[in-house]
Structures are given as C-alpha cells and as structure tokens.
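Students often ask why we bother predicting the structure of a whole assembly rather than each chain alone. The short answer is interfaces. A chain on its own may look different once its partners are present, and contacts between molecules only exist in the joint model. In this exercise we take two input lines together and write out one structure for the complete complex. Read the inputs first and try to guess which parts will touch.
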Amino acid sequence: NAGVTQTPKFQVLKTGQSMTLQCAQDMNHNSMYWYRQDPGMGLRLIYYSASEGTTDKGEVPNGYNVSRLNKREFSLRLESAAPSQTSVYFCASSDSAGVGNSPLHFGNGTRLTVT
Amino acid sequence: SQKIEQNSEALNIQEGKTATLTCNYTNYSPAYLQWYRQDPGRGPVFLLLIRENEKEKRKERLKVTFDTTLKQSLFHITASQPADSATYLCAHNTNAGKSTFGDGTTLTVKP
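Now the answer. The structure tokens for the assembled complex follow.
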C-alpha cells in the first residue's frame, strides 16, 4: 500500500519552461489536493478536487493548472515557470472534502527550483 | 479569513519532559483542528483531530486540548523522546475540506 505517490522527487527548471507534477493515490479517496510549502509561509493550498470530475481554486492558484485524470490521479501543471514558484509541492488526499474531520494523507513532495 | 498561528518556531526540551505546543486561531471557531507531524524531507503525517465540542483528546503519549474561549489548542507530548523531534503542524479544516495550516513548531528533544 503506497499511499500517495508523487513524481518527480526533484526538478530544476529554467524560467519559462513548463512541467507537470504527477500524483497518484491508492486509498480510493474521493478528494485530492495540491499544496506548496515555503519557509515562513507554511502549507498553502493551490488547487483541490473534491471528487472525480471537479476542481477548485485554493489560496494561491495563479500560475498553475490542474487535471483530475481519474479517481486515483491529480496532476499539477506549471505552464511557464517563474522563480517565485520555487517551492516544495505536496499532493494530499482525503476520504471526503465535505467532511472537515477527514485527515489528509500526504505524499513526500516534489522539490522544484526555478532559475 | 481564518488564520492559524503557532507561536513558537522552535522548542527545545530535555528527554522525559512534557512538550507543549500552542496553536491559536483568529476569527471564528473552527469545527475541527488537526495536528500533523512532519519530518525533514517528508510530507506531514496526521496525528490527532479534535472537534469543537471536545475539550480533550488522547492517543498514547499525545494529548490535544481545545479551548474555544481562548481560541487555542494545545498539543502535549508526555515522556518525550529524541524520536519525537520533528516539526508539528496545526491545521484548521472547514467542512468544504480546505485546510489552513500554521507554520509549524520545530521540536527538538535532547537526550
């Protein structure tokens, strides 16, 4: 049981390049999330998907797009990377976004550097 | 909007002592507060959840309290061990599923 798997683990991009961060969960969870974590700013929600077929913006969506490919997979795309997007990106899943007591299960992150 | 504040960036204690971490929230009382542990280079791992109408929750050496008057949750680790050294995050969850996290408190337990 792998839980939440993120790829790649590390990535270096030049300004203006694009890339897609992949995330998959094997817990049959309905909801999936993308967070970024920066020193002194904690975890901030970028986008989330309450259920298959739906996506919504979080706190910091600008510069990102997402796709909920199926129940298992939720990808995050940077179309034109900027240095301000240098961060650690975490994918998470939960049983239900509609229930506030559903804990989040996180992957181990993608460390992205944009030069 | 709701803000979660974890007052201490770092806490250093001696092995065997009780560690107490603080989480304060502004504005409205959250329905739930969750506590996570994060080790370097890893994602956060869920530890405990406490509901608004619960005053205290326990799990092994962990205890969480929720005081709606003070707008505060306290997270205690009793009989602390060096293996408890990590960053601990407090999170507020809305029923829409969006979580707001504090910046975390890094606990170091010295042998």
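Check your guess against this: The mean pLDDT of chain B is 90.
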